[in-house]
Structure formats: structure tokens, C-alpha cells
Amino acid sequence: MKKILVAEDEEILRMLVVDTLEDEGYEIDEACDGQEALDYIINHDYDLIIIDYMMPLYTGLEVIEKVRSLPEKSDQKIMMLSAKSQQSDQQKVLEAGANYFMTKPFSPMELVNRIEEILGGN
């Protein structure tokens, strides 16, 4: 079973993503701020991290930069979710070390399809 961390401070959106992914058979951990996300990442192994751009304590960008500085986590697959849809914002996210970028809003099936592409199926 593939394991995913969902780091999103908006509870309703986090619940939607978590429920959708659990229905698809993924094992999910969830974090509601950047510090909690970082703690999970340091202490667990994930097939994919899905992280929001704007979160309390540490932004998604800050979390990504911290993860990329850890040698044992440097190749971690990371998808950024963001309402920031400008090309410059996407470029900043990718330069920080995210592998993938998905603009909010998105449909649950769009997210599932993208994750299946990234992880090569369930």
C-alpha cells in the first residue's frame, strides 16, 4: 500500500483529499501546518507528500526547502497544491524542489489521476 502525507491547513479540503485517497486504497497521514508536516516527514517514509503552499508555522515552500536539505529525504516526491496559479509562483515552487504542482481548485478525480501518474498506479 502506498503511503501519502497530506499537509493542508484548510480542514474541509484536507478531509476531502484524505477521504478521496483512502477510498482509492492509499494509506494517509495528515498534517494541518508546516511544523507538523515536517515532523511527519522526518519521522516517516512516504511515497508522496502533498503539501499546500500557504500554511501556518512554515509555508509549503519552507517545508520543501528543509526536506531537500536532508540527505536521506532529498529524493522525496513532493506535490505542491496552491491557489497561486501564476507562472512565476509555479516556477518558484519547482525551484524550491517540488516535483509537481497542482492548482486549486481541482477535482478529486483529477488529483487521483495525477497521483496515479506519479506513483505508477496504486
From TrEMBL:
Keywords: Phosphoprotein. PROSITE patterns: RESPONSE_REGULATORY (PS50110). The modification 4-aspartylphosphate is found at D52. It comes from the Bacteria. Residues 3-119 form the Response regulatory domain. The keyword Iron does not apply. Gene3D superfamilies: 3.40.50.2300. Pfam families: Response_reg. This is Response regulator.
